[in-house]
Structures are given as structure tokens and as C-alpha cells.
Amino acid sequence: MAQLLVASISELQPDEQMHEQNAKPIDTSPYPTLSLVGVPFSFVALDEPSVAARGTARLPIWTAIRAGEVWKIWWNGPASLLELHCNDSLVWSSHVEPDGEPLRDLVAYRAIISQFVDPARMVPGAGASQPSILGRAAERLIAQVNTPRALLRSAGKLLRAFLMFMGAVLCVTMLTQCKARNAGVAQTTSNWHADTASPSERAAKWQASPDSSLPPELRDRTLGEALSPTEMQVVANATREMGIQMRPSGQPFVIFSDPNCPSCKDLELKLSQVDPRFVPVIVPVSFKDGSEETVKRVLCAKDTVSAWSAAIGGYAPVGDAVSDGNCPGASDKALKANGAFVALNFSGTPTLVSATGRVIAGSGSLDDINKWLVANGGLKADAPLTPVR
How far from chain centre, in Å, is Cα 46? Predict the structure, then answer.
């Protein structure tokens, strides 16, 4: 058993004191008597130095923590002192000679920790259960914030983690909103079906067009995107030269349609039933095989409305709808229609353009078409609706 020798402060050299700035020990008895009422402590048992290293080691070997209090038992090897500190202030010290036995077996050590709540659980070999993993983690966390500097450092880490988390939440929110907007566009056009022309076909048609003022970009236009004023002028030029107005009057909307396109044929069956306040204006394009000759015959006919209805309906024209397609300028007009389609970056037929410049491609249900026209056709909300007969 270790021998305990009380060491007075006058016998200690300045360099033997562990913290010169601390107050002198207030108790030099073999072990202190403490008054520890209030909230129970948490305990942290630290590794003690080996027998060979005891002469030079200076380190805490046990810690008790609660709000506002951090108690530590220090081993001061060079002075062979067992010390008790509270909040970094020296409370008690005693000179001991361990004689090779573990420091935790010292009478003074055990007498100190016995005055704290349930200290035996931190003493190896005492027969009590060891703290759980969560308990040890909590104790280490408490030990890491036992000084103002450590508390600020931990608060900084928590702040950084919080900002990173909020940044991730913001990114996820933006991605979700983007997907929702795309899904909304897809839902709006989910019932619309279009035939697409390849970029090479569109490029070839455009290069053959005599109207070289049109830009040759071949990117696909986003459905629902509004045309610019310059692009609306391209649409106006195309309808003025090649447009076929299918009704005598009404708010016009333009349809770029190919006579051999299945979706165009499907759309044509519904045009006579669309909201009568609107009038479809067909700009015939020719991207399908055999469509160019058909378009030229339509454009050369005296009755272009009947000629187009026969061409898209797949039946033989009669009367003024009959034409051989060899009228002056027919080839140029057919190529100009294709050039306008390509210059506007459209990617499939039929493509519809409203009076307000909104664009949508394909053949949807009659209800879808009417809803799109009402929302984008340019009429006032209180414009009268005449039922279709």
C-alpha cells in the first residue's frame, strides 16, 4: 500500500507546481473532504501513465463533470503529487509514493472519488458495470466543452454543419421545383403526339430555301415557349405567302402541318370542331416522303382550302381543288415553308402557334386544344363563345 505524505506548499519548488497561475492548495490533508450536493456528476476515467513513465508524466487521470463544475484528479509525476483541481484551480494536493501499484488503488484517490455519485463504475475491477457507448460519448462531449474556448470551437463546428445541411436542403428544394415545372409541361402535352423530322432533313430543306435571311439554328424549341417578335414576323411572312385560312373569320392560330404526317391527319379531324372564335391557318410543310409534290399541288389550286382538305384527308380533289403543282413559284413557296419551320427551331409536326406566340406540338384531344387556345389565343376572357354546330 502506498505511503501518503502530506506536502506543505512551502516544501514545493515553483517548477514542481503543475500550474503556477493557480491558487495554492487549500487543503493538505491525506485526502480532502468535499461537499458535493446537487445535480449528479458524469465521469470520465482516463488512462494513467505506466510505472516507467510516472516520474515524468503530468496528466489528468479522472474527471467528474456537471453544469458549471469540472473536477479532475491530476498526477504530477516530477513532484510525485496527487492533485485535485476544480475548474482549473488547484484545490488539494498530497505527496504520494505509489511503489509500483496502480494510481487508482491509492487510498487518497479512492477516498476522493467515493465522495462523488457512483464513482465505482469508473474504477476498473470494482465489480460495477462499465458505462454504455452512448454514456461514454456523452461524457466525452461534455469534456470537450468544459472551457469557453472549447465551447466556441464546438459551436463553430455545429454552425458549419447546420449551414451545410441548409445548403443541401436548398439544393434539393430547387431540384424538386425544377422537376415539378418540367412535369407540369409534360402533363400539359402528355396527350399530344407529334411526328418529328430529323435535323439533317430540316437542314437540307432550309439550305435549299431561297430565303437566306432566316437563321439556321437547329435546336429544338421547348414546348410552351413564347416566340420573340422577330420569330413572330417569320410566322407572319409564312402565313401571308403560304397560309391557308380554313374559316372565313376568327382569331387566327397557325399550324405547320405535313400532308403525310399521321398526327397531322388526326389533328385535322378536330379542327372543324375547335372553339369557333378561333380560325386555323395551315402552313403546309413537306418533310415526309412524297409531301413536297402534294404541297405544291395544294398551293397551286384555286381553292386551297378544299385542296388541303383532300390532301390531308387522303381523297382525290375535285373542281377548283385540282392542280398539277406546276404553277409559278410553287417550289419556292414549298421550300420557304420548310425554311420557316426550321428557322423557328420546331422539331415535329403538327406544330401550333397562337396569336400570342405560344408554341405547342402534336395532336391532342379536342378539349386539350380548346383549353390551350383559350389560355394562349389572345382573346379577352369575356369574349363570347358561339357553340359549334
Answer: 45
